[in-house]
């Protein structure tokens, strides 16, 4: 494999890791606050559809982005209503949200566009254009570093840079602000937060609102950045891979970045090479597809460093017993 | 605090939840410019007013009974098995291997062996998540989700690389031998003058599903193992104090659950397609969640809920055929049912409890 090919694979790794990273950080905020969220997939899907649909209708990708975020915020609101207000089962609520998004997106797409559950292809202002960073063209001729800067670091859409900047920002919010401390506390010992006079319900709703915002970005990137338009089930399990990455990362922002890059790399390799031939022994493409899930099971099993979730995760908080 | 009477808990709460889901679904149909009344009429006409419609409805019902019981048995042990889909896929592999490689003299023998194979394969796929939950505390929901994806990849590999007939493009096995053909309702009930169930896929597996309901009831409420599963589900510490091994119950309950999911594949693979195709399960594993929640994990409830979803599935297909409403409407209804009967249960329950409390106070 030559240097150019390597750069191409890494470039597509970055692109494919972006939605995973945004969704993973979304799940991080939610689960750190004690709300388990297996509805990441559904929220991304809803955001992908509404961002593409509004972008197609108005021709403005920014309005599309807002619509996508709004859609996934609504989904987050339903999840919050079920799991915080009515103290329902968070897992079941997540499952319901996934199905709701899977059905309603196709239903509305069919009603609005009559194209078999997809949106028209986005063109021009309906998509996020790639940004060429300063000096990318000038430095292109410089050996090794030039192509690296031009191919890998420059030339992505704005949401990619947002996603990567979200990692230090998430770390800073969670571990360096008062809000972050409280948010983590509410996922470990909500009764302590309550005793201190801080609203558990308020904090948890704030956490899932952030979760909705980030999954909204993830979905919008899928439909308006990575691809040009919405097709049914376009998230294709990415929400679950993000969930796997979250466990892989042990609910930490920087590890989340590494996990998402790893899973992005696996996807990029699986996309580029169908079956990998290792000197007579062939790794089938299906194995590459399944690898993120297999790795997550191994991590969950605790054979390679145990993943310990936030203590109060999945438990509805009852003020007085 | 006083509780509601048992009948209200078992019947009234689910009914109100379904009503809420139905009202919202009607609003969705209105929003896309169709008439909910017309749509409902079409669904009833297509699913219940013709014997072939019933043939499809009962075919889907069979799937949902198996997957519903699969989720229900895990619920009794306070576990949430989202892996029914993957377990059913692998169960299908078991059915295909049995049907393709064993020369059966008669369909009845084939059915027995294929049932065992389906249950064994499905149970095997549930075994690792169960063991990891019991021994290492890995959350069963996450591991079973992961195993769904691993199952899909595995099945894809096996169909594309191993079981696909030479020269075929489609990732599917060869057709099963004629001796493994299960009698359909048409074979059983139609006669020269009375062509019942024409062309519909309902088959003898339906009776197996009904038998599974009865066996489920007997297992959970009439055997020692069932008692242990329920005790474990109510309180793990109490169960442990009574000498019930948590590891054993977790693993056994999940094996039963996986086995039931695997048996669903009999209906789709052996009963209908008569070969193993890539997407044989069609999401039935997930519908099991809605069915178990709505049926309150009781076999009678599961049967009725499965019948409702069978009707919705067949009716939804009719709608997609005659109107501009796509089949995804059923996915929305399914989501609403899961939401209201599962996650928003308290929203319905809390006001009802207050109501019952108020009427009781007044009468006393």
What does this protein structure show overall?
- The complex is a heterodimer of chains A (321) and B (364).
- Chain A is mainly alpha-helical.
- In chain A, a hairpin with a 2-residue loop joins strand 3 and strand 4.
- The model of chain A has no long low-confidence stretch (mean pLDDT 87).
- Chain B is mainly α and 364 residues long.
- Helix content of chain B is 76%, strand content 0%.
- Chain B has 15 helices and no strands.
- Classes of the chains: A mainly alpha (321), B mainly alpha (364).
- Chains A and B meet through helix 3, helix 4, helix 11 and helix 13 of A and helix 5, helix 6, helix 12, helix 14 and helix 15 of B.
Mind sketching the topology for me?
The complex is a heterodimer of chains A (321) and B (364).
Chain A: H1 3-32, H2 40-58, H3 61-85, H4 90-113, E1 130-131, H5 136-139, H6 145-153, E2 156-157, H7 158-176, H8 178-188, H9 190-195, H10 200-226, H11 238-248, H12 253-272, E3 276-278, E4 281-283, H13 285-301
Antiparallel strand pairs in A: 1-2, 3-4
Helix pairs in contact in A: 1-6, 1-7, 1-10, 1-11, 1-12, 2-3, 2-4, 2-10, 2-11, 3-4, 3-10, 7-8, 7-12, 8-10, 11-12, 11-13, 12-13
Chain B: H1 6-31, H2 36-48, H3 51-76, H4 84-101, H5 107-136, H6 140-163, H7 185-189, H8 205-222, H9 224-234, H10 236-241, H11 246-273, H12 284-294, H13 299-322, H14 328-343, H15 345-363
Helix pairs in contact in B: 1-14, 1-15, 2-3, 2-13, 3-8, 3-11, 3-12, 3-13, 4-5, 4-6, 4-11, 4-12, 5-6, 5-11, 8-9, 8-13, 9-11, 12-13, 12-14, 13-14, 14-15
């Amino acid at each position: 494999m030559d240097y150019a090919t390597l750069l191409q694979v890494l470039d597509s790794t970055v692109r494919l890791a972006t939605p995973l990273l945004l969704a993973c950080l979304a799940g991080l905020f939610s689960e750190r606050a004690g709300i388990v969220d297996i509805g990441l997939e559904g929220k991304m899907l809803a955001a992908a559809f509404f961002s593409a649909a509004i972008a197609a209708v108005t021709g403005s990708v920014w309005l599309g982005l807002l619509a996508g975020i709004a859609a996934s915020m609504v989904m987050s609101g339903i999840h919050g209503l079920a799991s915080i207000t009515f103290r329902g089962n968070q897992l079941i609520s997540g499952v319901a949200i996934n199905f709701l998004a899977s059905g309603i997106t196709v239903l509305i797409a069919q009603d609005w566009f009559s194209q078999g559950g997809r949106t028209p292809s986005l063109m021009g202002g309906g998509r996020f254009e790639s940004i060429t960073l300063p000096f990318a063209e000038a430095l292109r001729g410089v050996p090794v570093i030039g192509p690296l800067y031009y191919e890998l670091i420059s030339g992505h859409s704005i949401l990619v840079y947002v996603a990567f900047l979200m990692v230090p920002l998430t770390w800073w919010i969670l571990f360096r602000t008062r809000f972050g401390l409280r948010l983590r506390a509410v996922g470990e010992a909500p009764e302590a937060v309550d005793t201190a006079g801080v609203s558990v319900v308020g904090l948890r709703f704030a956490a899932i609102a952030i979760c909705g915002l980030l999954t909204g970005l993830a979905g919008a990137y899928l439909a308006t950045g990575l691809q040009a338009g919405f097709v049914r089930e376009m998230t294709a399990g990415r929400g679950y891979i993000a969930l796997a990455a979250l466990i892989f990362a042990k609910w930490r922002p920087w590890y989340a970045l590494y996990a998402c890059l790893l899973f992005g790399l696996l996807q990029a390799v699986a996309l580029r090479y169908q079956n990998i031939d290792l000197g007579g022994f062939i790794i089938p493409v299906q194995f590459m597809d399944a690898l993120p899930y297999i790795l997550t099971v191994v991590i969950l099993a605790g054979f390679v460093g145990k993943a310990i979730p936030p203590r109060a995760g999945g438990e509805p908080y009852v003020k007085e017993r | 605090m006083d509780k509601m009477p048992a009948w209200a808990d078992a019947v009234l709460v689910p009914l109100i939840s379904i009503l809420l889901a139905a009202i919202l679904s009607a609003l969705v149909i209105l929003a896309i410019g169709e008439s909910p009344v017309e749509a409902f009429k079409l669904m009833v006409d297509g699913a219940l007013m013709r014997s072939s419609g019933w043939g499809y409805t009962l075919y889907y019902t069979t799937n949902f009974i198996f997957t519903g019981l699969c989720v229900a048995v895990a619920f009794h042990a306070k576990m949430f098995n989202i892996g029914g889909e993957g377990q059913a896929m692998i169960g299908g592999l078991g059915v295909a291997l049995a049907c393709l490689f064993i020369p059966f003299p008669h369909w009845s023998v084939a059915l027995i062996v294929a049932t065992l194979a389906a249950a064994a394969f499905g149970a095997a796929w549930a075994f690792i998540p169960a063991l990891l939950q019991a021994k290492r505390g890995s959350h069963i929901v996450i591991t079973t989700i992961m195993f769904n994806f691993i199952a899909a990849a595995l099945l894809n590999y096996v169909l594309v690389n191993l079981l696909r007939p030479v020269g075929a493009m489609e990732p599917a096995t060869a057709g099963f031998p004629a001796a493994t053909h299960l009698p359909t309702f048409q074979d059983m009930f139609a006669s020269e003058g009375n062509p019942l169930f024409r062309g519909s896929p309902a088959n003898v597996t339906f009776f197996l599903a009904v038998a599974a309901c009865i066996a489920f009831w007997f297992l959970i409420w009439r055997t020692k193992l069932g008692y242990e599963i329920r005790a474990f589900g109510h309180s793990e510490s109490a169960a442990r104090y009574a000498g019930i091994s948590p590891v054993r119950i977790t693993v056994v309950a999940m094996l039963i659950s996986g086995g039931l999911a695997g048996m669903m594949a009999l209906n789709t693979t052996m009963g209908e397609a008569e070969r193993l195709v890539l997407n044989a399960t069609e999401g039935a594993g997930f519908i099991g969640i809605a069915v178990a929640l709505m049926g309150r994990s009781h076999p009678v409830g599961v049967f009725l809920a499965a019948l409702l979803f069978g009707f919705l599935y067949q009716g939804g297909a009719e709608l997609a055929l005659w109107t501009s409403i796509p089949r995804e409407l059923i996915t929305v209804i399914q989501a609403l049912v899961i939401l209201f009967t599962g996650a928003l249960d308290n929203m319905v329950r809390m006001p009802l409890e207050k109501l019952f409390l108020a009427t009781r106070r007044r009468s006393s």
